[in-house]
Structure formats: C-alpha cells, structure tokens
Specification:
The protein has about 325 residues and is an alpha/beta fold. It is about 45% helix and about 15% strand. It contains 13 helices and twelve strands.
C-alpha cells in the first residue's frame, strides 16, 4: 500500500504543493474556494497528514508512551484503556508497551519511547530507580507514575490507591461473620512498594480486630508460584478466610481450590484486591477490594495533561479503595 502524499493532492487538485500545505495547515493567505477544493481532494484521496513533519514544525508529537507490567492482566488492561481513552479525548495517541515485570525490558522500552520523541510517559514502574527512569527525569520528559510508586523518585507525581479503607472494611466484615483467624497472601512484595504498603495496612487493621497471633501472612513472586501450598499451610493452622493482595494470585488460587473440591463461600472465604470482570462472572461472585482502576487511569492521564498542556506542577493523588462484599465470603463454621 502506498500512502497518499501532499504532491498527489496537489496534482489532483491542479494546485501547487505549497498551496496544498497552506490549505491543510491553515497557514498563509489562500482563497476559500481553493481551500475547499484542496480539502475535498485530500478527503477523496484518503490523505493522512504526516505526523513526523508536523512534529518537526511544532516540536510536539502528541504521542505518549504508556508502559504497564502485563497487558494480559485484566487489571492493567482496564488501566491502560482508561488512560488511553482520556488522552485520546485530549488529542493524544498512546504507544503501549509491557515490561513483563522485568526491569531490563522496562528500561529497553523506555529508551525506545525516547527515540520516538514522545511528549511524555505514563508508567507503572517495576522495582526501584533505574537508569532509564533517571534519564526521563534528567532530560525533563513529563512523566507520571500510576498504580505504583518508586521510593527514591519523589519528584515524579503518582496516582495510586490507598489500601487502608478497603482492607479495614474487608476485615471488619470477616470479623462480623465470626472469623477469628485471617490469612493474607501479599503477592510479590520484594520489588513492589505498593504491595509492601498493602501488607502493612493489613497488619495494622488486622491487629486491632484479630490480634497479632491470629494473622497469617505469606508472600509469592511475580512468577506466580503456586499459592496452594501456602493455603494448605494456613488452613492447617485453622485459617478459612483469605485476603489476596495480588489479584493474579487469587485467580490461580480459585482454580486450584476448585480442583481440591473446596467450595468458595462455604468451605473457604476469599477476598481479592482488584475488581476484575472475571470475579463478577464467577460463581459465586468474588468479594473484592476495588482500587477503582478507571478512576486511577483517568486521574493519571489528567495529571499528565496538566503538566504538558497547562504547565502545572502536578502533585500526587491517592484514590480510596472500596470493599465490595459478594458471595465468596460466607459465615465462619
């Protein structure tokens, strides 16, 4: 397929290249009739403006780099959609990449984004302050972190969730149903300050309701190491109510529990972070601590636009988590 060029439009309309350029870019003096003719011809030929040439003239590409850990993860798919939708409404396109929870891949993608002369980046960071993340700051590329923060990069504004309220409501619900021991599977916390904060919030809220000795906490890894052995270990200590700090662990556990013949909502009660669509479609529906992902995505994009479009110094924002009880939480036996 050959792209229609400005020369093709000029030839078909019987005008010059400079005339077509002025007509399509609203520059210089040109009659209404000629402008209308050029626009009509461009439309008929299916002419698409060359964004590279426009970028050279304006120093803006209206392209934003968006980096998420795994687009297959429904949570990050929803997050990317919310960000992309908000940016599109403001006239920006997104170049989406995935880090696969790998710092090397993350940095490689960031450097590739820079080669495309992006207007800025919205990133779900992996790990700590990397060379590529530092490079974005050093050359003053507008950047916003979403969902996660990096401890040693306080200069980058963040939009994420505050886990405290949702966890408190979830634990209060379990306690009111007669549970006196709770297991918390925190996910791959080693390189995730966000998951570390969730575990801390669980311990703080749970200690007051259940006592330190009745809280059972284990972590997993980004490699999705089976949670079944962790669940078995906790159940051996009398735990039948579980909260998952990382939704992909919950998905894996639900599948494993089904094979074990355990009925969720009866034999075992379960709550997960992230209100994934699949959780609403399962039987029973899975109780969740919602991060309000669409709010996070939209706010992150708006924060980015405030920096790029309005030149504002953006501050970080937190979205309150919301507990949504469903059929996966039953009564203690």
């Amino acid at each position: 397929m050959a792209y229609v060029t400005i020369r093709d439009v000029a030839q078909r309309s019987g005008t010059s290249v400079s005339t077509v350029s002025r007509a399509l870019n609203n520059r210089g003096r040109i009659s209404r009739e000629t402008k209308a003719l050029v626009e009509k011809t461009a439309h008929e030929l299916g002419y698409i403006p060359d964004s590279r040439a426009q970028a050279m003239r304006s120093t803006r590409t209206r392209l934003v780099g968006l980096l998420v850990p795994d687009i297959r993860n429904p949570y990050f798919a929803d997050l990317a959609y919310a960000i992309q939708d908000t940016l599109f409404d403001a006239g920006y396109c997104t170049s989406i990449g995935t880090s696969s929870e790998d710092s090397v891949k993350q940095d490689a993608y960031i450097m590739n984004m820079l080669s495309q002369h992006i207007d800025g980046a919205i990133i779900v960071p992996r790990g700590g302050k990397s060379k590529a993340l530092k490079a974005l700051v050093d050359i003053s590329v507008p950047m916003v972190f979403v969902d996660r923060h990096v401890n040693d990069m306080p200069e980058v504004p963040v939009v994420d969730s505050d886990p405290s309220e949702g966890l408190l409501k979830a634990l209060t619900d379990l306690h009111s149903r007669g549970f006196r021991k709770v297991g918390y599977i925190s996910g791959p916390i080693l390189d995730s300050p966000t998951l570390q904060e969730r575990e801390y919030a669980f311990r703080s809220a749970g200690r007051a309701l259940f006592g330190e000795d009745n809280l059972f906490v284990e972590s997993t890894s980004f490699g999705h190491v089976s949670c079944l052995s962790v669940i078995r270990k906790m159940r051996g200590s009398g735990v039948n109510a579980f909260i998952f700090g990382y939704s992909q662990d919950a998905v894996q556990a639900i599948s494993a529990l089904g094979y074990q013949g355990l009925a969720i909502g009866k034999d075992i009660s379960l709550i997960s972070f992230d209100d994934l669509e699949m959780f609403r479609l399962m039987t029973p529906n899975i109780s969740v601590i919602s991060q309000q992902v669409h709010v996070i995505g939209s706010l992150g994009a708006q924060l980015f636009l405030d920096i790029v479009e309005r030149g504002r110094k953006a501050g970080s924002q937190r979205v309150e988590t919301v507990y949504i009880p469903r059929g996966s939480v039953g009564e203690a036996r």
